[in-house]
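@channel sequence for tomorrow's demo:
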Amino acid sequence: MTVHNLQPAMVLVRPQMGENIGAAARAMWNFGLDRMRIVAPRDGWPNPNAVAMASGAGRLLDEATVFEDLAGALGDCTFTFATTARVRGLTKPVFSPEAAMALAAKKVAAGEKVAILFGPERAGLENADVARANAIISIPVNPDFASLNLAQSVLLTAYEWRRQTVEIVAETMEMHKTGWANGVEVEKLAEHYEQRLETAGFFFPEGKAHGMKINLRNFWSRMSLTGADVQMLHGILRQMVRWKERGD
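structure tokens (generated this afternoon):
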């Protein structure tokens, strides 16, 4: 379980549909966040539709704190972000989700209590809500279609939080019952093909044979071969030779 004081609070302001609250809980827990605060939910609380949508993240709803107003929800917070896609006419720093969560991670690590506001589904946060925030998070969406579902906004922000607080491996290779071929294995494979191709008269004309052999060796070295790959390539060549020798 994530330690509560080492993450921001995700504050859903006047959410309208229980399903969206449940979906937001799932998005949070996908990325290790479990501090949910709910301000004046339209359909009251608890909401069975939220529970049904939350699936395996139902615990977040059980532990969610409900407030009558935004001031109460932010009472213990030292820094607040407001997510919005619209120009507000307010003088505030505006961060990308990545930069915002980098700052949030630093503040949380320093012992501050950070909140992130998400507005109701129909129109988002009101200016009065945004005015309570220290900074704005602006998600770089298509300007011709800037509307995001509540859970989508939560998921994008939670993902960026995860990126800032957990080491992310950019690329891995999943090996299935094999390992990378070593130099000896690749050398034996190269020799096998060179010998068989020599017998088949592949290296012709003689004046180009040396360069062709070098190109073939270079071909093998450029490939990232596993031990299983090497065995398969040996087997392919052996079977082709047997087929030729049978005269089929």
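heads up for whoever presents: The chain has a mean pLDDT of 93.
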